[in-house]
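Form 7-S
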Amino acid sequence: MLSLIKRVQSKVSLVKAKFPLLFYILLVVICFIDIFNTGSGYWVPPYIKHLIFLVGVYMLLAMSLNLVMGLAGQLSFGHAAFYGIGAYASAMLTKNVGMPFIMGLVAAGLTAAIIAIPLIYSSVKLKGNYLGIVTLGFGEIVRIVLINLSITGGASGLPGIKAPALFGIKFTAIGPTGKEAYIILLYLLVGLVYLFIQRLMRSRVGRALVSLREDELAASCMGVDTKLFKAIAFITSACIAGFAGCIYAHYATFISPDNFGMSETRLIICMVVLGGMGSTTGAMLGAAILTLLPEALRVVKDIFDLSFDPRLIFYGLLLISLMYFRPKGLLGGRLTVFHDSRLASALKGDRAYEHS
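Output:
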């Protein structure tokens, strides 16, 4: 029996090791299989590819918000503002200045990170609900500024955003629908961000952020520079959200302030809570579920010709059920920095010493 369990565990470990490679191979196949389609129509409809793209964008946003709320334990209700700042920064620089897309991507992340600095000062002085109110106000300020500035197109939005080019070839010329290159680039960025956050969580910085979440006063007494690590959490989170905004802006070719309002922040928060606070994989899972299921419910509404929107009822029932059956989220409490084997063995040794 023990040997069977070990064999199963080895098979699971093998699948986990090969999953990223298999996922990216499948993604490339889904994107480019229609090249071999000689008939009319698509084997993989553009709508499905659009949903795959949206899942990737929300994965980036959920992972970035999870850094602040799940890992560092700081409330943030203005996360969509950084998403919008990155989108507008890249769109205006590439459209008006002629900046290359890669430089625009970097500029989007840096702009969002720099504008996050005022929130760092707020997070030092405020905690809990008060910090949440400040971030909520920050998000609304950014949205109103985008509406009232003429350079951003005002309430009408910013159209005509240029398509990126790679080695002189425009993204719109790659693939059957012209959107495939965006999907590949986006998921490469998702993979890099995931690896970065996983390494961060297992580093000294990650453990310091978790100590802030658990007990800020105790962390400060133990020598943790709370101001520095809050700054790291907010700046890194804003930078990743800026990257997501950049890719979305060039994919959509049109953005408006309505794309980055409070409703977007609420959706991202629901993704993080559903997946499990503090779990990077959980944030990605929550993003996939809350992006795909509403579209499935839209189909249900059309099939049964319902007079109401079942998505609103679904959100309520999902959150109520989650709070009752899984209060820590789908993967909450499992994937944390404390899964470091050396730290786990040290904790076991401490407990053995206490009981001796």
